[in-house]
Amino acid sequence: MGRLGLVALWSLSICLCLFANSASAQLKQNYYANICPDVEKIVRNAVQKKFQQTFVAVPATLRLFFHDCFVRGCDASVLIASTSSNKAEKDHPDNLSLAGDGFDTVIKAKAAVDAVPKCQNKVSCADILALATRDVINLAGGPSYPVELGRLDGLSSTAASVNGKLPKPSFNLNQLNAMFAANGLNQADMVALSAAHTVGFSHCGKFANRIHNFSRSNTVDPTLSKNYASQLQSMCPKNVDPRIAVNMDPNTPRKFDNMYFKNLQSGHGLFTSDQVLFTDSRSRPTVNAWARNSAAFNQAFITAMTKLGRVGVKTGKNGNIRRDCAVFN
After folding, report:
1. Sign of the four-CA dihedral 308, 256, 203, 266
2. Which residues form the active site (predicted)?
3. Any residues with CB less than 8 A from the CB of 77 and at least 6 apart, and which?
4. Is 78 annotated among the ligand-binding residues?
5. In the CATH scheme, what is the code of domain 173-307?
6. What is the average per-residue pLDDT within 238-250?
7. Mean pLDDT, the chain, whole residue set
8. Active site residue: 67, 92, 203, 268, which one?
């Protein structure tokens, strides 16, 4: 290949790299410094008020962020309400269990931001959700961390787009790794983000098969602690309302900590997709390390959340700043 050909190939590779990173490149920590300089304080105060009303705001907001980013990227498309002509993401079966307190946290924070004349309609719903997520984690005892900002709100939200984009409680390690890798996240990121299950609750219907009809040879999933399985059976007997809620973390359900990993070590993972992180030898060392060292887990979680926040960011004509987070402009 001649020198000109090499130069052209090098230029093409540079362009492709720049294109691949263009979304995350526009994000920066002080994006609103000259637009709405107090945005982080405003959001924090609104989130704190919501947190004081109900702890559910913590897992609800955190889960909302995750479900948003894994479908079409972090663009607040999960906040859009359905209309007579469009069934939106939030009404897909996988999103029907998203707690209303998560949506309300964002709505309250958006209202607080827009109440400041300089900030009105200047801060995206996607960025408000990202900030609110950081704040609920910290309010529950988890780490605080700088949030990259500059996302635009998405212009599309369809229930159909959710299909196959969110991990299921029955996933094994290969399935989890593949889904997270599709979003630029590695196994360590996946294990760290799974620990969001240290707060919040699930419904009996999501894990009933593990305690009542696991397989022909085992009624109960043998990876479950026998005592824990008995507790779950008493809380979720056969034919119970599948919407009955059970804490994801049976020990410290209202604290964001590394107890999640200690639970896995003792067979107290609620979902198959939780317990497999310990039973599979490829991820077990990470579980053991973070069960011992909460500081190492916190740092890994911050890294994973920062990477998650860069997924599918909308820029330019691909997005805007919504006046109402639930409605397209």
Report:
1. positive
2. 67
3. 68, 71, 88, 89, 153, 154, 156, 157, 161
4. no
5. 1.10.420.10
6. 93
7. 93
8. 67
Domain range summary for the chain, segments of one domain joined by +: 25-165+309-320, 173-307
Residues 6+ away with beta carbon under 8 Å from 304: 185, 188, 189, 190, 192, 193
Kindly report the CATH class assigned to 25-165+309-320: mainly alpha
The residue-averaged pLDDT of 86-115 equals 97
Per residue in 253-265, pLDDT tens?
Answer: 999 999 999 999 9
On whether 92 is known to bind a ligand per the annotation, the reply is no
Q: What is the CA radius of gyration of the chain?
A: 21
| 251, two tokens | 């020990």
To the query of whether residue 67 is one of the catalytic residues in this protein, the response is: yes
Can you list the alpha helix ranges (DSSP code H) found in the chain?
3-20, 22-25, 39-53, 57-69, 100-114, 125-139, 173-181, 187-194, 208-212, 226-235, 259-265, 272-279, 284-292, 294-308
222 a known binding residue? no
Distances (CA, A) of 305 to 188, 191, 218, 223, 230: 12, 12, 37, 29, 34
In order of 39, 173, 267, the CA distances from 225 in angstroms are 46, 20, 5
Q: 80, 88 in Cβ contact below 8 A?
A: yes
Find out whether 145 and 305 touch, Cβ atoms under 8 Å. Answer: yes
The predicted structure's pLDDT at residue 2: 55
197 is in an annotated binding site: yes
Residue 148 known to bind ligand:
no
Q: Which amino acid, one-letter code, is at 6? A: L
Instruction: Kindly report the pTM of this predicted structure.
Output: 0.92
- Name which of 121, 101, 102 is nearest 111 in CA terms: 121
State residue 242's pLDDT score: 87
Span 132-145, average pLDDT: 98
Helices and strands (DSSP H and E) totals, the chain = 14, 4
